[in-house]
Amino acid sequence: MESSTLFRPVGQAELDLFKASEYRHFPPLLDFQPIFYPVLNEEYATKIARDWNTKDAASGYVGYVTKFAVNSEYLSRFQVQTVGSADLHLEYWIPAEQLDEFNQNIIGEILIISEFRGNAR
User: Fold this and answer.
1) How far is Cα 46 from Cα 66, in angstroms, rounded to an integer?
2) Comparing C-alpha atoms, which of 48, 95, 105 is closest to residue 75?
3) Domain at 7, CATH number
4) I need a labelling partner for 62 at 20 to 30 A (CA). Which of 13, 55, 56, 88 fits?
5) Considering its fold, how many domains does the chain have in total?
6) 113: closest CA among 52, 45, 48?
7) What span, in angstroms and rounded, lies between the C-alpha atoms of 95 and 86?
8) Domain residue limits at 66
9) List of the chain residues with pLDDT < 70
10) From residue 20, how far is each of 40, 49, 66, 72, 86 by CA, in Å?
């Protein structure tokens, strides 16, 4: 099975929830989150984790970059979305109601590859 490597910036609360799944699944999205957006490169995930999550109380003023593999055949159902710079800001938009199916197509563990801490205000 061919896999694609993706990244996801997360805050402390989301990290705590997927720790409970033994790093195998992302938790359900909140009511106000219509899409799950894994990103295609580490640089973009790092920018979000470092520059946004560390300034956000809901993220616990901490940002983590996660890395994980997904079944490429499954992922081919979705189009890559460009949300800024065409060479950097690339992500998939997975509808919230399809997150369980997405999780079933994760291969192996979700790895934490970096951590950034801000100052709680």
Assistant:
1) 9
2) 105
3) 3.20.170
4) 88
5) 1
6) 45
7) 22
8) 3-117
9) 120-121
10) 25, 21, 15, 26, 35
